[in-house]
Amino acid sequence: MDDPVSAWIGLIESHREKARPLTLFILDLCHSGAAATLPWHQQMQVTDRRAWVIAASGREDKAFDCRLSRATAMVLRQYLDGALAVDPSCQHIPLPTIAHEIAREVAKLNEVEGYSQQIEVSRVPFTARLHDLPFFPNPGYRSQESMLSEVDAGIASMLDEAFDPRHFMLRGASAEPLERGESGQGYFRGRDAEVRELTTWLNGQGSGFRLLTGKPGVGKSALLGVLVCAAHPTLRDATQGLWFSLSVKPGRNERLAVVHARRRDLAQITDSFARQMGATEKDRPSDGWDTQSLVKLAQATPGAPYTLVIDALDEAERPEDITQALLLPLTRAALAENPVVRLLVGTRSEPRFATLMQLADAAGGLVNLDHVQARDIYKSLQQYIGDLLAVDTPYAELHAAEAAVALAEGIATRLTGVHALSPHCDRTGPLEWGEFLAAGLYLRHILTRPTEYDPALARELGLAAPVELPELLELDLVGRADEPDLRPVLATLAHAEGRGMPERAIAHVAPAFSRLGSADSPLSIDRLQAALTQARFYLRRDVDVDGTTLFRLFHEGLAERLRANPFGRHGQEQAR
């Protein structure tokens, strides 16, 4: 075939009324960059392009010894072996990402073999996002269905991606510190007044806006999770074990739309609400969904008002923009007379959400989990700890039963300041962290120790619980000496900025915080993955625009502790 490559590209890009295949040209030829930079092709809208090019050289340059082909094979092998990776949420490796890695490998070959060569690629505006090009499947991809072991695939396929039902089920189970989140057994305890208030609201009573707020780890997502599982028509039956013990239970709501806002932007949130309300892609306004169009969508189908639930607003992309552009208008619509939408938002108590909090407070709809009596927390916490101990732990055995009761009482007393036989509270102020989170972390540590069968000693063990999260972290790390890469990885992430640090950077920096091995040798991919798995409870994960997974610690308090003391007590002693 004598036609130039430009003619092949023109054949693919012509006849837009016909189905045209998405095609990637990998051209390991001299002067092949000309095909990547065709002027007429660069003028096309990125979303309309069907042909893409990775070329071995510029239009005036030579290519040597099949370097592009060899580099491409090396990069694909590294993705297959796990030495390179993009986030498991990405079904395909973004084309710019893989092109960047190929360019890196070509540069390495240049250094070894001589004769400089630089690849050329299809040029696009730097604002364009090319995540959906299906040329290179991600070997590490995990679909929504594959992560929902407790909900069969038929149910999972009916759930919207931004709904993220796994988030609500895991939080509703309330057992993540002991890694029981997927067992189907629910451990949500207490918060009876808030459960009753929000259940009544979910059943259609009261003003149209509720804001659920409180400090980190206080249980906002756990409360929303268990209620959403009970109310959502698809999750209700499959998650009965999580919500059945609630004192009151919301009814099944066929007009319920739910979004987990973490890492999602305004368009993703509004698109998800619209899809869950029955809209199709054809219904989408040209400039996207907004409050007015969502309200019209709700009006188009007769029935009760649509209930919209959004959790983790503080972890969304640009949450202030989401608040201003969507949530404040939705709040006003929900508080209007005879509203067609009702709105429930879960977020931390932060100044940037002051207007939302004021509107909720004025409407009698502010639910602040920080404003709960210590004695109520004590009772719920004691029951929570006792129930966790009663399943698959040594404290579930008959000869440890009394010790389990005493241990739960001791932890609850330490974290709340309330004594079982006294109405008084010894603590001068509430914990900076949620008591249930702190209890779960301490229990995780206790279960690594020999079982304490003496009730008096078990109570003393409970009363020794640290009340600061950094202290809990230190206690956990000291007891995990058989995981030598864990602390160096956490200490590395204590220096992460912005949205987080990629795996490649972690692998190179972590050895500097290790007492073992050379600081010049990066962690192997196997050791890095093992350490990230060991550290998963302390981490938050994000995805960069190129599909790279970014990691960071889940709270600045932990980062400050690790920056001040990266080597721990033993490291300080060795340094002296």
Structure summary:
The chain has 576 residues and is α/β, with parallel strands linked by helices.
List keywords for this structure.
three-stranded mixed beta sheet; alpha/beta; five-stranded parallel beta sheet; single chain; 576 residues
What would you say this structure looks like, in words?
This protein is an alpha/beta fold. Helix content is 42%, strand content 9%. The protein contains 24 helices and eleven strands. The protein has helices at residues 5-13, 33-36, 39-42, 67-81, 95-113, 153-156, 165-173, 192-202, 220-231, 240-243, 266-276, 291-300, 319-334, 354-362, 374-389, 401-416, 435-446, 455-463, 469-478, 486-493, 503-509, 525-534, 556-564, 568-575; strands at 23-27, 51-55, 120-121, 209-213, 256-260, 306-311, 341-346, 366-368, 501-502, 539-543, 549-553. The strands form three sheets. It has a five-stranded parallel sheet, with helices on both faces. Helix 16 runs parallel beside helix 18 (455-463). The longest helix is centred in the N-terminal third of the chain and has 19 residues, at 95-113. The chain is flat. The termini are far apart. The model is unreliable at 147-157 and 570-576 (pLDDT under 50).
